Amino acid sequence: MDAVDLVLRKFDGRPHRQVTARRLGEDAYGTWLATPRGTTVSYHYGTRPTGKTKVDAVRLVTAGKWWMAMFLAEPADRELYCDVITPARWTGPAEITVVDLDIDLVRYRADGRVEVEDEDEFAEHRVELGYPPEVVDGALGGAAELRDALLRDEEPFASHYRSWLARV
Predict the structure, then answer these.
(1) How far apart are CA 19 and CA 6, in angstroms?
(2) Which of 7, 11, 2, 6 is nearest to 103 (CA)?
(3) pLDDT in tens, 70-95
(4) Which domains does the chain have, with CATH numbers?
(5) How far apart are CA 110 and CA 144, in angstroms?
(6) What pLDDT digit, counting tens, does each position of 44-59 carry?
(7) At 148, phi and psi to the nearest 5?
(8) What is the model's pTM?
């Protein structure tokens, strides 16, 4: 299993977050990356320090979609955490780069509720960073697509991810 750097940037090119994951494989949904408990995540924003992941997780990086998903093992309260992004690009033989577009969707393990977070940050950065119309449309469309899939419990969000998570 090869190491892959997952690099998240902001629209203006600033570094946002980075994690080195293990590439588990690919399927019809995209590329699956493992971040075992204790994996280092580097944060380049705010006051949040670089830290270690608290639970095993798999990340699904989709081809051509405006989102990526992270599926978290128990005992995490969140079952999954999704970032709305520009479509992922391989920027090196072992590097995937995305632009984080602020909107996040979370599904909670205990009750299955889905919450959309940071829409205010998206609205602010839309103006401040000058998101062009196609980026705004892609982000809003991706968030809506993702929300609907999560609420309907469609794959890969229903159970498909569990086989990948078991490999971590």
Answers:
(1) 5
(2) 11
(3) 999 999 999 999 999 999 999 989 99
(4) 3-165 (2.40.380.10)
(5) 23
(6) 876 666 789 999 999 9
(7) -60, -45
(8) 0.94
Nearest residue to 110 via CA among 146, 78, 82: 78
Structure tokens of 68? Answer: 């990526």
Give the CA distances from residue 8 to residues 22, 77, 97, 162, in Å, rounded to whole numbers and listed in that order. 16, 24, 6, 25
Which residues, other chains included, contact 144 with Cβ-Cβ below 8 Å and sequence gap of 6+?
A: none
What would you report as the CA-atom Rg of the chain, rounded to the nearest whole angstrom? 15
Amino acid at residue number 109: R
Q: Residues 162, 106, 28, 132: what is their CA dihedral angle, to the nearest 10 degrees?
A: -160
